[in-house]
Amino acid sequence: MPRIKPMDAPRSRREFERNLNLFVECVKAGRIHLPSNESIIQEILAVKLLPNRRIDLLTISEMVRLLANQQAHMDNHIEEIEKNHNQQEKQ
Fold first, then answer.
1. Model-level pTM?
2. Distance CA 32, CA 23 (A)
């Protein structure tokens, strides 16, 4: 079984915004089921956009940041597992 690598922090604002947008897509698609904890939902809803449609980083809580980065990390990990599995099947 492959080991899970430590989570890397995003290296740029662009990468972080990508993680946050992917997180929102996963929630909308039903791939992530959030607990019915009202505070988590409120923190997600508190994220605002700037007039240029970029994310206002000052409105992102620590919880939302961690959820978004964790989701991106797990997506990358799953892709790596699938890639390794496909390579093993070819051999």
1. 0.75
2. 8
